[in-house]
Each structure stands twice: as C-alpha cells, then as structure tokens.
Give the backbone structure.
Amino acid sequence: MTFSLFFQSIVNGLNLGATYALIALGYTMVYGIIRMINFAHGDFIMIGAYTLFYTVPLMVNNGMPAWLAVFAAIVVCAIVGVLVEIFAYRPVRKAGPMSALITALAMSIFLQNLAMVLFGARPHNVAAIFSLPSVTVAGVTISLNVVLTIAIGLAIMLGLQLFVKKTKLGKAMRAVPQDRDASTLMGINVNKIITVTFAIGSALAAVAALMYCTTYPRVTNNMGTTMGMKAFIAAVLGGIGVIPGAMLGGVLIGLIEVFVRLFAPGWYEAVTYGTLIVILLVKPSGILGRNTGEKV
Amino acid sequence: MADKTTEKKVPVLKAQNLGIQFGGLKAVDDFNIEIGESELVGLIGPNGAGKTTVFNLITGVYKPTEGSFYLCGQRMNGKKTHQIVHAGIARTFQNIRLFKKMTVIDNVKAAMQEHLTYGLPQAIFRTPKYWREEADITKRAMELLDVVHLSGKENLEADNLPYGQQRRLEIARALATDMKLLLLDEPAAGMNPTETEELLEIIDYIRDTFKISVLLIEHDMSLVMKICERIQVLDFGTTIAAGTPAEVANNPRVIEAYLGKPRKEAAKDA
Amino acid sequence: MTKQRKLSYLLNLIGVAVVFAVMTLLFAFQGFGDSTTYVEGVCTTACYTIIMVASLNLVVGFMGEFSLGHAGFVSVGAYASAIVSGALAGKGLSDLALLIVAVLAGGLVAGIAGMLVGIPALRLRGDYLAIVTMAFAEIIRVVFCNLEITGGGRTMSGIPKLATFHSSFWIMAVCVTIMFLFVRSRFGRTVQAIREDYIAAEASGINVTFYKVMTFAISSFFAGVGGALYAHYMTAMIPTNFNFNYSAELLSEVIIGGTGSLTGSVIGAAFLSALPEFMRQFSTYRMLGYSVVLVLVMLFRPGGIFGRWEFSLTRLVKKIAGRGKAKAAAAGALPQAAEKKGE
C-alpha cells in the first residue's frame, strides 16, 4: 500500500467514522435515557437527506449558500423525532422492553414506507452542498469537502460534550439515566428530558445526513437501515449509553470499513457485523462501558 | 451413592471458608456451616449482611472466590446452577420468581423436566412412553400441590394466586426437583400470622415426609426462634454467632448487630 | 382416554383434509374464474409463509426472545435446498421425492446454522440478542453474495419448480403439527418456563442454554423448510430477497397474529401474505399498513390478536355436541364439556 493510499484511507475512514459517530450519539443518548434501541433512528438520516434534497435547490435558487439547508433538515428531523417519541414510544414505555423494541421496529418500517409512498423507491441525488476544491499535499490528494465534514463532525461532538457537562439541561440529561425516580424527586421533568434527548439525537442525525450526502449524494427510502445498523454497532462498540464511547466507536467502525474494503471489497459488511458479534460476546458493555448484571 | 450408614455421618451441606469478593468488597467471608439430615437451620442477620449472597453461592449463581462447599460429601464448587439443582439443592426467592403466565401445575411440572426421559421424536409421535411419563408427573405434581395446600388451584395462572399462595407454590416447585436441601429465602415475608402459621405446618410436614434439610433466611425473629434447631448469624459477610436459638438470642454481638452498641460502650470506643 | 385421543387425532386429520379438499376442488373447477391460477399461487405463498412465521413464533412467542434474523435462516434453507435439488435433478427421482429430499436438506442445513449461531448468540438476551441475530443474518447474506455456488450476488435461477399448492399444503400441515406437538411437550413447557423467568428456570434444574439453543435450532430448521419451498416455488432468488426487511415482515406477522399462539401465526401469516396480493393497488401501502397495525397492536393488544389462544377442533366439536345433547336432555344434567387444553 502506498503512503498516499494509506493516508487517503485514513481521511476517508475518519469522514465515514465521524458520520457514524454522530448517528451513534443519537442511539446512545436515547438508550442511556430509556434503555431502548431506537430502530427508527437510522431513518431519521433518510428524512434529513430527503429534506436536503428538496431544500438545497431552494437555497441555491434564492442565492443563499447550499449548506444553510442543513438547518431545515435539523428542524424537520427534530420534529419527526419528537413526534415519534410522543405518539409511538411514550404510550408503550410502561409496557416493557419488548413492546418498546417492536414499536421502534414498527416506526422504522413506517418511516421507510412512508418515504417510499411520498418520494418513490427510485434513488434521488442531492445537489452538491459544498464545492471546495481538492488540494494535493506531499503527493496526497485530499478533498477539502471531506476535511470540512470531519471538522463539522468534531465541532458538533465537542459542542455536545460541553452541553451535557456544563448546562443545566445537559446535567439533567445525565441524571435521568442514573436514577429516574430520584431525578423526578429532584424536580426534573423526565418526560421533557426524554423529548429533548430525542430532539437532539434527531438533529444530530440531520447533520450526519449532511455529512453523508456530501460524500455519497444518493438518497433512498431505505438508506437508514444499513447506516443505522452500522452506527448502532459503533455505539455498542464504544459502550452504549456512554457519549464519548459513541464517538470512539464511530471512528473505529469507519476506519475498519474503509480499510477492509481496500482488501476485501465484497466482505467489508460481514467484518463490520462480525465486529458487533465479537464485542457483544466478549464485552457486551463495550470499550468504555461498565458491566452490569441482573440482581438475583 | 454410599450405603445408609456412612451417608448418615456425612452432612447434607458442608461449607468450608466459603467466600466471595466483588471488586474489593468481601460480601461473604469465611462462611462455615454443616447441616445434617432433616435439620432446620436459620440464617439471620441485618439487611445487607450477605444472607442472600450465601444462597447465591450455594446455588451456583455466583462462583465462590474462596473456600468450597459439599453436598453429601460431593464437592459442588464451580458447578452450574442446574447441575447443583440435580445434585439436590433447590431454593425459593426473596422476591417471588414464578413462571407467572403458566398454570400452577405447569409451574411444578416445569421443575420435573429432568425426571422425564422421553425425547423429541417420542414427543412428536406421542408414543406410549410420552403419555405414561406425562401422566406420572401430573400425578406427582398434584401430590406436591396437595402438600402445600394448593389442590384445586392447579389450572389457575400462577400470577393470579394471592401472595401467600405464590410463596407456597414456589416451595412446591422446589420440592419437584427432588432435592435433599431446601433453601428458603424469607418464606414468610409479607404474610399475615395465619398464613405464617400455615407455612410453618407445611415446612414441618415436608421435613418429616421427605426427610430433607432446610436452610432458612428469615427476618421474623419469633418465627426463626420457634422453628430453627440452630441459628447462624451473619453481619457484614462474616459469621458473628452460631448455636441454638437461646444461645444466639443472648449473644451480645448479635444484640449489637441488630440494635447497635449501648450508648456507654459506644462512648468508650470513641 | 386412549380412544378419545385417537378420535381427536382423527378429527384433526379430517379437519385438515377437508380444508385441503375444498381448496383443491376450488382450484380444479376454476372456483376463482380467470384468476384461479393466481389464487393458487397466492395460497402456495401463504403455505410457506405460515411455516416461516410459525417457526419464528417458537422463538419469539414461546421462548420470549427476539430474532431479527429469521430471513437469514430462510435463505440458508432456500440455497441449500436449491443446491441439493440441482445436484440430484435428473437422477431418476420423482418430483415429489426430490422436493422432500430438498426440503429436508434445506431444513437440516438451516437447523445446523441455527445451532451454530445460537450457541454463541443465546448467551445474550433481549435487545442485544435481537441485534446479534440481525447481524448474523446480514453476515449470511454477505456470504451468499460472495459464494460462486449461490450465484455470487446475482440471481440464482433455474431452480426446478417442484413445489405445488398440494405439496406445500401438506408440508405446511406436517410442520405446523410437529411444532404444535413440540410446544405441548416437556420441551415446550421448559421453553415457556425460560421465557417467564430464566433465573427461576435455572433454579428449577433447567439447563437454560441447552433448551434455548435447541429451540432456536428447531425454529431455524422450519425456517429452512419454508425457505426450501420458497426456492422451489419461485425458481429464482437473490440474496437481497432475504434482507432485514424480510425478517421484519415475518416478525410483524408473528406479533400481529399473537406471540405464543400458533393459531395466530397460521391465520396471521395466511391472511397477511394473501391480503395485499388480492388488493394489488394497495401493495405499496402494505408495509405501511403493517407498521401502523403493529403500533396499534402494541398499544391495545400487546399479546397480538390471538394472544396465547389456540384453536382446538376437538374442543369445538365437543362444544357443539355438548350443546346438542343439552338441548336434547332439556333440563337434564349438562355434560361437562371438558375444556382441557390440547387433547
């Protein structure tokens, strides 16, 4: 492998990894707070991507920079996320983990098929959002678009970390998973916190959609399934429920995928899924998570 | 299996220096006990003393980090829960764990799984062996339900039984495993005096009829004092006293563990 | 008692045979007019879907664990059987014999795959197990996409069309009967105990891991049988047919029909796989409808439409006979319509 290819792969891996990390954050935050795998989370990216597809030309036609469309995507995703939470997840929350899992699965199927009914099964191509040139440094050609998306991803993650550590709302978000009843007694409105968590998680998915569409502009109604699955693997790898874990896991999965694809293009997905199986069997709590057993 | 005479001498349960550490915490340390045939021993101690942990060690839920324990002379360390059950130790749970959505009789039958020998093909072709064995365990399950005074309730869903009856069903399910040693984890918790009285009768009856030994965790002191032949007291994972109910009741360390130090002594220590 | 049992078996056999006869006659005399052939095809589809859904119910309803990768085992059965029938075609076996060999081979390979997946995976429970089964199914799909013998990611076609409505119906009847007898045996009881409380099951002397793996393998076996019928009815397939959406579809049918009710699986699968075919204009909305129904079921009837209820022909006949006798006896003593399950 040449140095140039290696370096380029690192950059591509980081780009993909940062996208996964942003999606994984949504899984992890929701799981941390209500112990539920939000299967529909992957489909929020799809919603974000469709929003971009329709709003980017709008922005361009009105003489505004294309990337402003991401704010529309953020708003749409956050609204969808909150609606799904309120109308589907909240009513079954007391019914146990299996009902929650099925409902989440149902919402995923619902969103995908709704998108198919609304937009058709044909792939759509999102217009270019960033049009930065490529630069060549020491014989390595790097697209500045990719560098920019990595930077955006890192900035968002940093911002999120500051938010949960420093703000009152962020602290409440960390308190609820620790002990929901105690949080209620401390005057935290748990339902509100859950809603906020969904809004933030979905908004991150919208940003992930922007990053993804910059590199792979194809939008389909079922793009969320594989994206979501891989981001979920990233969340589990890092330790589900742990915010830095999602970031670490995302970057690792991105790098693994890019490098395996270099050597065995047909098999890279098997390796990603295999990674998940290995982590779950060896250390289900993930790299940064802590083990918990059932009390007898 | 050895002949009757030698079997008598070997204690049903023997634990030697049994202990477990969680991280740096010694939840149970240097636990020793011997229980003979048909003996009823009480295990008491304040909350968090490690009583249920002892049960979890003896039933293989936790693996002991120190010491060992024997059932009728056979070393049990490192065996899986279901293997220990087959060897002859069965238990009930502090917070009832029944097969809630199954009928009362199926709860008992489920614990007889290992007495059945028919295989998958015999189940699918419904051979005479299938019918014979199923009829046998149905009969046996009915007998056990009778022992715990639950006759006539066999087709109810376990979840629909009142609390006291659920506790008794747990005992019937434990009996169904054909054990030598029964571990009862707070069997009278939440029962009213009449129910407790009924429970005591049942415990007496099963000891006499099935010749089994019982190790019992209980918070109700009057109950423990009344029925146990010997009592062992745990505090912070260590045994602080053992002996007859009268001996234990007058042991200053036990009184201290339950009621705290008298004011004068506490002042002296400080 | 024995006589009653035999009568009950006979009654059930007659019941199945009557359904078969009615369907066959309808198809033979063009009961659905021009679309008879089409309806027959839909009914064949329903037959193998029933096997897949009922087998998934063994894991979901009776064992209480979620599998999101059932389509993976279906595909193992489909490909294994197609390879076997391809190798044996033209060796002088009759179509039916070839189908039976292919179906058994598909089931066996899928069962072994289920065991191999189950041994590591079933150490996990709940969400994690669901995710791992999904991951295994994806890996199976990737493997089939890369192997030359399975078409290397392209459509594998030219599989002999061996499955007809007649053979599919009887294979389905046999499979559902076996699953039913499995559930109503010590194995079913044990598995349900594990579903209710695995800690208590372990403390009752049940080797939880063993019975879980066993059930998972049996469930995979029947998934493979369903897959084999699929392959020999469709005659062409591609690994992406068996993706996550297919698993999710099967799972929705289990849940809507009733977790823990084979009756629910049979009726649910038959109805749900046939309905959209008859209302073609709605086929785009099928999964949309499924998802809405799923959420509604979760909200209002979490156990599914049939819950854990099982249909019993014997019970029904007894009830009708009992009612007749009661009328005849007027004020006479009511015969106790024994409502014991099963028998």
